Amino acid sequence: MKNVYFDSAATTQIREEVVEKMTSVLKENYGNPSSTHSFGRSSKSLIEQARKTVAGILNVKASEIVFTSGGTEADNLALNSAVRDLGVKRIITSKIEHHAVLYTVNQLQECFKVEVEYVDVDSMGNIDLDDLENRLKNSDKKTLVSLMHVNNEIGNMLDLKKTAELIKSHGALFHSDTVQSIGHFNLDLNEIPVDFTAVSAHKFHGPKGVGFAFVRRNSGLKPLIFGGEQERGHRAGTEGVHNIVGLEESLKLAYENLEEEKEYISSLKKHFISKLKEEIPGVKFNGTCEDFENSTYTLINVCLPVSQEKALMLLFQLDLKGIACSKGSACQSGSDQGSHVLNAFLSEEDRKKPSLRFSFSRYNTKEEIDYVVECLKGFIEA
After folding, report:
1. Could you tell me the end-to-end alpha-carbon distance of the chain, in angstroms, rounded to an integer?
2. 137 plus 204 within the same structural domain
3. CB of 362 within 8 A of CB of 261?
């Protein structure tokens, strides 16, 4: 049995260079960054250097980077503060956002009576920007729009700059979950007028448990976690220095190798699509998977011609063959309700069929793809 990992949208294998860097910090830089002695100053300098590195990559100011425990906290920080502190009375989002956004919005609606609207999504899972514009026109309430850049389940990409400019032209705030895009695409946040973004290191071969929020200067955002004055008062709690340095190193390596790795991973995706079409008649691709201009190169979401009854055993059978992938999003793998993303736009007929997300990294090979397609074909024909 082989071990084949095609679930990098859930989490990535950490780079060896990152492990080495983090191990060194754990051994040598153990001082509390808030302490004023030399041990503390050594740790603090590593954090501030990491902040400068991240800011330089995104072309923003170091003061606009707030380190967090990951993308979920960064989303919560922006959304909660927007309503609680910035006077937002209405949130426009979509039904295909990550649950870190959707569940937070639900909570804000319940606790603060904020008005929530869901922008239309077309039959391919794309955000309807005309509908968004109409919604922005039709209210004078202070509004925040929350729309992700790259969808974590189907890979559809939002035109971030065009969307941000539309939102800003109507005086609204814009939050975007960029967990699936930063580390995989060049984003100049000085040129894209987004107010808040969320990032997680483990999506680009870094450690789990660390990420950051980009918070536009002078936004007025207040902390979600209270205590000490860490992160310039934006996020209390002693910083995990080794994790922050791991984030820095993994993001730096991601962009140093971006073009080469993008070309390689794109070739894997093309090969996967080609082999599936060749070997499995009736296969479909959810969202804009086949459109390399409007979909991320890092994943595909496949609807397989399998009966509802037989589909129940599909993931189990793949796991027995050493294949890791996701039915929808890994963040909801314990749920039997199906993917909220796919339910938002798939036909009733296709919702009854199994859909799998295969997501790729620099560590995958075409031979692994051939093995997966062979296993899928065998399962379908059995």
Report:
1. 19
2. yes
3. yes
User: Which residues are paired to 90 by β-bridges?
Assistant: 115, 143
Cα–Cα distance, 9 to 358 (Å, whole number):
8
Alpha helices (H) along 280-345: 308-311, 314-320, 340-343
Query: From CA 123, how far away is CA 25, in angstroms rounded?
Result: 49
- The answer to whether the beta carbons of residues 322 and 2 sit under 8 Å apart is yes
Which residue is catalytic, options 111, 289, 303, 331?
331
**Is there a single domain that holds both residue 77 and residue 155?**
yes
Structure tokens at 234: 């934006």
Q: Could you give the number of structural domains in the chain?
A: 2
What's the predicted TM-score (pTM) here? 0.96
325 is catalytic: no
* 196, 160 Cβ separation under 8 angstroms: no
Are 169 and 269 within one domain?
no
Domain that holds residue 71: 16-256
For residue 125, the domain's CATH number is 3.40.640.10
Nearest to 219 by CA among 232, 237, 200, 209: 232
Which percentage of the chain shows pLDDT scores above 70?
97
In this prediction, residue 19 has a pLDDT band, given cuts at 50, 70 and 90, of very high
186-242 pLDDT per residue, tens: 999 999 999 999 999 999 999 999 999 999 999 999 999 999 999 999 999 999 999
Same domain, 243 and 302: no
How large is the angle between the packed helices 241-256 and 38-58, nearest 10 degrees?
30
pLDDT level of residue 328 (50, 70, 90 thresholds): low
Helix (H, G, I), strand (E, B) or coil at 90: strand
145 and 194 in a single domain? The answer is yes
- Residues 166 and 265 reside in one and the same domain: no
Identify the three-state secondary structure at position 70.
coil
Per-residue pLDDT band at 3 (split at 50, 70, 90): very high
> Do both 247 and 284 map to the same domain?
no
- The average confidence (pLDDT) of the chain is 95
Domain ends where: 256, 275, 309?
256
Question: Which of residues 221, 256, 291 is at a domain's end?
Answer: 256
Strands (E) across 141-206 are located at 143-146, 173-177, 196-200
Instruction: Please indicate, yes or no, whether residues 270 and 157 belong to a single structural domain of this protein.
Output: no
